């Protein structure tokens, strides 16, 4: 089984089941999709809207339709020549679950004791589940304690700081077989592997998985701008955050008006995470360091993880990343830590520090620094680099060519269930980089009237408001509650600040209805549409396997989850698609139908198979406003930096086309090299050889 031509991601929930997904199979086929890409389908906690809290990996989730529903879905997809790609969660399970209950009942004598990563040195499993004023409750093999003790005393590994998600020792062959037997029996097209950085030995896991699965295999590995996947992993590529960074970046104008010291904010955020919510993990690792005082070992372990230049290393691969972290660290015990890790790169000390560094980086950077450093939040994305402003077409072409030659079947994405904001929000916010003074004047004026007292949240709030406009007070309020608590500056999930929480909760009602807000949102709407269409066409036709996140075939102005898991109205999309199939050329307007046109045409072209990568260069006074490339006789043309272009126009700028006759499949018209004519209907064009 090869890679699908494209995927369409859906979020299974109790209100969107296997049967509901089967009902849209015909729509997806008409759209041009190659495979349905579903969120986790194994049995999860009752009511879960995401499915990553797996409770039983031995059966399809009954709430979604169970195994009968899963088989019916695959049959329906097959009837429409669509594949199925499934998201799997090898790192953790939700507790309690039947295996966990057996462990609590029987302790180390349980047949499942080895399934979970428990430190049995204290003899009992610590369960931080009691209210603040409740006394400890011992059981035969566990002790229930105050919930606040979890972050410092927990003795089982978990998913980040979520105590209810206990880590699974999938490196054990018996555990691997027990947790993968069911999903591997389904015969799916592809697997998306969640959170590989939490595994003890990601490379070993993927090699074992590949022995049992010969389909398309992509991994949720977050790569830095100058990082690549370990060469020894037998996978097809990542889930596409690296491509997201590059595709969005090429539509952002370079500017220094939003500059700040991101790395200082990032470092302090990581340090706070290591010292607080992940202190239990740090202390467990420190106990493995020999020959140094415990507190010194704690300081060294935390500092090295805080200083990682990437999420984690995979020793002995990636030794340079480990060396960088060590060189940046000054704690007295770092030398001893380094020597012991190098002496046994596959040992428990090296393994645990690598597993945990990714947690420190992710929680410190994505879930803290990105909510604190808010100068220009279009760059604050998973895998993003807020200190790298924009990407030149030349650099984009080089990276795209590298993907084509090295990982042509890697997934590419613009929106996911984990993105901080949707692709269309980022596309609109990218406009701010072209008009920084105008935006900063707007933010200053509106802040004088209705500012939030904490400056970084204030900046985030105004950008989120104009980026997601129009947005309800309720949605914006829920987002700002999450943002303020993730930032951990004046309030947090653990230690609430009632006065500040009330201020944040009251803000949307004051700001949403301000005339200045709607006026500014209207100002950036049209150029935002241009950026949206441009980045979408580029993603769908560039190297890699493009994913369309549910509903984003129309404009989607969602913020971070759970906002991006709201129900999708497929009837609206069916009706618009039917009109497009009849030859309708929609205006670029609030309906988003123009984006649906771009998605449908590009996905159908994509199914023909696109190979190779040839950059094309425009000539003339507005040449910098074009991103163009050719693949297998298909040419992509996208407008970039539309505000500056609007001021000066295309003038005599042309895009020399190889060969004689080309047709723009978006409009059905013969293509011309004159960009003013080629792009007079849409800010993008998709050209194929020959006449209409």
From TrEMBL:
<dbReference type="GO" id="GO:0047470">
    <property type="term" value="F:(1,4)-alpha-D-glucan 1-alpha-D-glucosylmutase activity"/>
</dbReference>
<feature type="compositionally biased region" description="Basic and acidic residues">
    <location>
        <begin position="56"/>
        <end position="68"/>
    </location>
</feature>
<dbReference type="Pfam" id="PF00128">
    <property type="entry name" value="Alpha-amylase"/>
</dbReference>
<dbReference type="InterPro" id="IPR006047">
    <property type="entry name" value="GH13_cat_dom"/>
</dbReference>
<protein>
    <submittedName>
        <fullName>Malto-oligosyltrehalose synthase</fullName>
        <ecNumber>5.4.99.15</ecNumber>
    </submittedName>
</protein>
<dbReference type="InterPro" id="IPR012767">
    <property type="entry name" value="Trehalose_TreY"/>
</dbReference>
<dbReference type="InterPro" id="IPR017853">
    <property type="entry name" value="GH"/>
</dbReference>
<feature type="region of interest" description="Disordered">
    <location>
        <begin position="400"/>
        <end position="419"/>
    </location>
</feature>
<dbReference type="InterPro" id="IPR013797">
    <property type="entry name" value="Maltooligo_trehalose_synth_4"/>
</dbReference>
<keyword id="KW-0413">Isomerase</keyword>
<feature type="domain" description="Glycosyl hydrolase family 13 catalytic">
    <location>
        <begin position="18"/>
        <end position="578"/>
    </location>
</feature>
<feature type="region of interest" description="Disordered">
    <location>
        <begin position="48"/>
        <end position="68"/>
    </location>
</feature>
